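CHAIN AND CONFORMATION:

***
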Amino acid sequence: MHSAFSQTDHRPWKAPASPWTWRQSWRDLLFMHWPVPADVLRSCVPREVELQEFDGSAWIGIVPFRMAGVMRRPLPDMPWISAFPEINVRTYVETEGKPGVWFLSLDATNPLAIWAASRFFYLPYYRAQMSLKQEGDTYHYYSRRTQGDAAFEATWRPTGDVYASQPGTLESWLTERYCLYAQSPDGRILRNEVQHVPWPLQPAAATITNNTMLSPWNIDLPDSPPLLHFAKRLDVVVWNAEVCPTSAG
């Protein structure tokens, strides 16, 4: 059994009965979240999905990390394909009672992984020059998209012990999500279910020296510092996409 299934009672709904098809591991990850007015983000997601709010505000996340163990079941890891740095920009949506993640963009270094994610998941991936280096418990991250001015540079480190978020809290709302949404070229809304154990979160500190990841949407972040969480590792499995019935026509 895959390690992602070592705990399942925390899921908000049952995992699909069909076999999962992809596996991956998210490593050395930093969640950065800012509250953003919902009307600023509404145009960034299709009208068929509901943009979610927590305590009267929508939220946007920028998440740098590294991928490992990325492969379609049942194939083994492959050098230069299964591991690479990534950064995504995301917000939070709901369709048919299932809250999930909507990605505004995802940047990675691996052209084959970008092709596969675009082909099978219809996700807005972009190629970038990236690096993630670790010195002790500190991580140094750099990303610059090969086309356009989207870039990010920061250092971060965990500052406390691992813990699980509590249901009903903002940090749980931001992180404990078990599907992602995307839109196919013909306009259908697709849902990919995911499975993992509860996020092993840690408080974090970060210094951001360059962040233009939101420039394609002209979104201004608030002056307040972001809400930060670190996670060392989370193993994940993903199912094939299903068409949301509300968009199947």
Observations:
- The CA atoms of residues 25 and 235 lie 4 Å apart.
- Residues 3-10+25-240 form a domain with the Acetoacetate decarboxylase-like fold (CATH 2.40.400.10).
- The chain has three helices and 13 strands.
- The chain has a mean pLDDT of 95.
